[in-house]
Write a structure and sequence with these properties.
Elements lengths: L9 E4 L5 E2 L6 E2 L9 E4 L4 E6 L3 E8 L2 E20 L7 E12 L7 E4 L5 E12 L1 E4 L5 E12 L3 E3 L4 E3 L6 E6 L3 E4 L10 E3 L7 E7 L4 E4 L2 E3 L4 E5 L3 E4 L2 E2 L3 E3 L1
Parallel strand pairs: 1-4, 2-5, 4-6, 5-7, 6-7, 7-8, 7-9, 8-10, 9-11, 10-12, 11-13, 12-15, 13-16, 14-17, 15-18, 16-19, 17-20, 18-21, 19-22, 20-23, 21-24
Antiparallel strand pairs: 1-3
């Protein structure tokens, strides 16, 4: 799970065919990233990256390629940032399919960032993401696909990439726990659409959003709701929206 040393290193994933986090030969230099290190994924390839041990790193940066991220051996924890879309003119995508990715620190300042500098995509189709902050603020270059699985955000969310669709899988549920902070889903100019869509047209998909905490606020310009979806508003949290289209079950 990484060599103990007194300095931070940058470790580059080199296996364009995919492989295991714990194998030193998959990295340059040939050492598994440790606690202070940054893991960089810059292969212009499609591959499966498997975190087969519990691991803690400082940061993970995805600059190009199409990565299927499978966490099978515990928790992958990033104490500073997890980012996709690092290099201008390059497209990077990550599909999270299993396990627990935790982007968090004691100060509550760790960031999951989508489309940082160019096109970045995060698709959650299984597993869980826990993050202090979630940011997707680069318009159409920031792509979030929250089909099914679990997301927990604790200190704030800013999404400004048009309409965010949550829970679009026809058979499974996406659960989003919003536990604190100021959370904004912003419409960036797609007239006629709300900032947040739950479910998918034709009555498929299912989303559950749990708002909790006296300082927790979710602000969206509008809600478009399909199928059966629920927003739970608890412990003094608040939801601000201009309109709701179609049906929605609200619980408080």
């Amino acid at each position: 799970m990484g060599l103990l040393r007194g300095y931070a290193a940058t470790c580059y994933w080199t296996n364009a065919l995919g492989g295991l986090f714990s194998v030193p030969a998959n990295w340059s230099p040939n050492v598994v990233p440790g606690l202070p290190d940054t893991a960089v994924f810059s292969n212009a390839a499609s591959y499966i990256f498997t975190v087969n041990v519990s691991a803690t790193n400082s940061s993970a940066l995805f600059s190009q390629g199409s990565v299927t991220e499978a966490i099978s051996g515990g928790i992958w924890c990033l104490t500073n940032q997890w980012r996709v879309g690092e290099v201008i003119s390059n497209t990077a995508s990550v599909t999270a399919v299993s396990g627990l990715l935790a982007v968090t620190n004691f100060a509550g300042t760790a960031v999951t960032s989508i489309g940082c500098y160019w096109t970045g995509e995060l698709a959650v189709v299984g597993g869980s993401l826990v993050t202090d902050l979630l940011q997707a603020t680069n318009g159409g270059f920031s792509i979030l696909d929250l089909a099914y699985g679990n997301l927990t955000t604790s200190h704030g969310v800013t999404v400004s990439n048009g309409t965010l669709v949550v829970g679009a899988d026809p058979a499974r549920t996406f659960v989003w726990n919003i536990l604190g902070g100021n959370n904004q889903i912003l419409n960036d100019g797609f007239a006629g659409y709300g900032g947040l869509t739950l479910g998918q047209d034709f009555g498929v998909g299912h989303a559950v959003i749990n708002l909790s905490g006296s300082n927790t606020m979710l602000s969206v310009p509008g809600l478009d709701v399909y199928s059966t979806n629920t927003i739970n508003i608890r412990s003094g949290s608040t939801l601000h929206t201009t309109y709701v289209q179609l049906g929605l079950e609200l619980e408080s």
